[in-house]
């Protein structure tokens, strides 16, 4: 009986070794989708030159208006007054100027670019949830309560779906 187990184990090993390598399932690369379809950026829609674009700067007399798309309705929707009035500040990653822009910039760019912020249009309650998620699940260092209040007020003012 012992020989039978040894032979059976040997045959199983031989069958596995001669079967060839297992094929891995093809998993789509999520970053490929970003290259083909970049995230929506209200301040720099597709085809609009960025203010820091070297090709635009090299063309004399060319002035790029990063707010052009923000003041025009998207898909028939009314233009957002808060974005139309607040110019992007290149010192703070093109976040709209306003109270809390600096605090928001320094708190957020420690982990991600401002493009992530600028593309958001979520509810005020979702901003509160995202803040807790970033602290608890992502390890974001939470600032003092006053700074937190200023940042969340800024995000809700400029990047909320409720305004």
Name some characteristics of this structure.
163 residues; mainly alpha; two-stranded antiparallel sheet; 9 helices; 2 strands; 2% strand; elongated
SSE blueprint and pairings:
Layout: H1 2-18, H2 30-36, H3 54-58, H4 68-71, H5 81-85, E1 88-89, E2 95-96, H6 101-108, H7 114-118, H8 124-136, H9 145-158
Antiparallel strand pairs: 1-2
Helix pairs in contact: 6-9
Description:
The relative contact order is 0.10. The chain is elongated. The protein has helices at 2-18, 30-36, 54-58, 68-71, 81-85, 101-108, 114-118, 124-136, 145-158; strands at residues 88-89, 95-96. Strands 1-2 form a two-stranded antiparallel sheet. It has a domain at 80-163. With 163 residues, the chain is an all-alpha fold.
> What oligomeric state do the depicted chains represent?
single chain
What is the end-to-end distance?
A: 78 Å
- For the secondary structure, the number of strands is 2
Question: Which spans of ≥5 residues are poorly predicted at pLDDT below 50?
Answer: 52-58, 69-84
Widest β-sheet, arrangement of strands: 1-2
SS field, number of helical segments: 9
Largest sheet: 2 strands, antiparallel
Shape: elongated
User: Could you tell me the radius of gyration in angstroms?
Assistant: 26 Å
The mean pLDDT is 74
Q: How much helical structure, as a percent, in the residues? A: 40-55%
How do the helices and strands follow one another from N- to C-terminus? Answer: HHHHHEEHHHH
Protein structure class: mainly alpha
Strand content: under 5%
